[in-house]
Specification:
- The complex is a heterodimer of chains A (309) and B (161).
- Chain A has two domains: 121 residues, no CATH class; 124 residues, Cytochrome Bc1 Complex, Chain D, domain 2 (Orthogonal Bundle), CATH 1.10.760.
- The longest helix of chain A has 36 residues.
- In chain A, 39% of the residues lie in helices and 3% in strands.
- By secondary structure, chain A is mainly alpha-helical.
- Chain A has a three-stranded antiparallel β-sheet, with no helix packed on it.
- Chain B has one domain: Cytochrome c/b562 (Four Helix Bundle (Hemerythrin (Met), subunit A), Up-down Bundle).
- The longest helix of chain B has 28 residues.
- In chain B, 72% of the residues lie in helices and 0% in strands.
- The chains are: A mainly alpha (309), B mainly alpha (161).
- At the A-B interface, helix 9 and helix 10 of A face helix 2 and helix 6 of B.
Chain lengths: 309, 161
């Protein structure tokens, strides 16, 4: 399913003619019926779209404790950072333990601004710094999908952070330094395919959150965009994916990239490992071939940066 | 157990016969050969995966018949995985051979072997798809098979830099 087009308008040509009241009435009834059918269809399309976006955005990778076979989205996976260990919370539609009581506005605000319904600020370990560039429609499609899943009554585990990083009140300052709420236009002036790739990479799949090195305060170093990092989510090295021939993936073809995104295969016949496998499996492998090709086109159009993490 | 044990001995004997003789000190000999045999098995699967992939990318001259042969070879290799990783060959680094198998492989041995069976089945599906000569069907089956590799490696292989 292709996700980055405008929500397809469902065009219903009006069957109302000009001959008499009965006909008009019948037509109104028909139109009402078609309207209902259309909204049911829009609903199921929205869920389908939400499922693909949800996969590509990797929400379940952080919000599910996969290592211990924890329930989907009930929270718990540990994210090791230089600032301490984060545990992504329960975001199942449970009204008390999850986000079941959230309105559309609450949800959009969390992803767009990194702000909770009570007005407190989120740590950027929740990659709202990327999601901020998603469209409202895409955010709401994800919400609809999450709300179609099982609610789980399980308390979220508190983060274990080192001072001073445990100071939530300091976050507005961090955000002021490192964050600008979107959506901002991405890859302006580039061909459509590259722009679609930019949206998927920068807003949805947040590839940069792992593949870009961070500065001392944890902000992404944009001058080293996708040039590799030595602090992955599990303390692993994350490779340079700019098209630099020596240190990046300059010798990969577009095909090589789509084979990775759709099957997890590396050019040498091996399979990709660690957190990248999670990105691919039930993640980018759910995207349409067209969207995978768009990501490849975007990566290949990046400026090459020489950097070995 | 008896049958698999026997199979293991045969596979190992073949590996010993094929492998370089220099590795075997008396004590380490069998252990080294066991690790080496399973590494060679993985390499041979990797070689066939690469060949299939290059066919799908139009980078080699393989035909659908070659794809079928490769898929059948992978299925055959998959059948040997459980044997070559039997708990008694729970071996960490021996001699100058490093293993990237995680200890969980042996504590969750049943899950491990079910993943090997998944590869066997998926490569069987791929061999069937190859018989249709339909490139799209081959590609889909190849993708499904590759993902069984990824799932197992993710769980039971230590990733080296």
């Amino acid at each position: 399913m292709r996700i980055v087009s405008e929500l397809d308008e469902i065009a219903i040509s009006s069957p109302i003619g000009s001959t008499g009241r009965a006909l008009a009435l019948a037509a109104t009834a028909l139109a009402a019926f078609l309207g209902l059918a259309a909204s049911a269809m829009a609903q199921s399309e929205m869920l389908e779209r939400g499922a693909v976006l949800f996969a590509a955005a990797g929400c379940a990778n952080c919000h599910t404790d996969r290592k211990n076979q924890g329930p989907l989205l009930a929270g718990g996976r540990s994210l090791i950072t230089p600032f301490g260990t984060f545990y992504a919370p329960n975001i199942t539609p449970h009204p008390e333990f999850g986000i079941g009581a959230w309105s559309d506005e609450d949800f959009i605000r969390a992803l767009r601004e990194g702000v909770a319904p009570d007005g407190s600020h989120y740590f950027p370990s929740f990659p709202y710094t990327s999601y901020t560039n998603m469209t409202d429609e895409d955010m709401l499609a994800i919400k609809a999908y999450i709300f179609s899943l099982e609610p789980v009554a399980q308390e979220s585990r508190p983060h274990e952070l080192d001072f001073p990083y445990d100071q939530r009140w300091a976050l507005p300052f961090w955000k002021w330094l490192h964050f600008e709420p979107g959506p901002k236009p991405l890859a302006e002036g580039q061909p459509d395919e590259v722009r679609r790739g930019a949206y998927l990479v920068e807003a949805v799949s947040h590839c940069g959150e792992c593949h870009t090195p961070r500065g001392r305060l944890g902000g992404l170093d944009r001058s080293m965009w996708l040039a590799g990092s030595s602090d992955g989510a599990e303390g692993e090295k994350v490779p340079n994916i700019t098209p630099d021939a020596e240190t990046g993936i300059g010798d990969w073809s577009a095909d090589d990239i789509t084979f990775l995104l759709s099957m997890g295969l590396l050019p040498d016949g091996d399979v990709v490992g660690s957190t990248m496998w999670e990105v691919v499996s039930d993640g980018t492998d759910q995207l349409s071939a067209e969207d995978q090709e768009a990501i490849a086109a975007y990566l290949m159009a990046l400026p090459p940066i020489e950097h070995r993490p | 157990m008896g049958v698999t044990k026997h199979l293991a001995a045969v596979v190992l004997a073949a590996a010993v016969a094929a492998g370089p003789a220099s590795l075997a000190t008396a004590a380490d000999g069998e252990a080294v050969q066991a690790v080496k045999a399973r590494q060679d098995l993985m390499k041979s699967i990797g070689g066939n995966v690469k060949g299939l992939r290059e066919m799908l990318q139009g980078k080699n001259t393989d035909t659908a018949a070659d794809a079928q042969r490769r898929a059948e070879e992978i299925a055959e290799s998959a059948r040997q995985i459980a044997v070559l990783f039997e708990p008694e060959y729970h071996i960490s680094n021996v001699g100058d051979i490093e293993t990237t198998a995680k200890p969980e492989l042996w504590t969750d041995y049943e899950d491990f072997t079910s993943k090997a069976t998944a590869l066997e089945e998926a490569s069987g599906e791929l061999a069937l798809a190859a018989q249709t000569e339909d490139m799209n069907a081959i590609k889909t089956a190849f993708g499904d098979m590759s993902k069984t590799c990824g799932g197992c490696h993710q769980a039971y292989r230590v990733k080296k830099d």
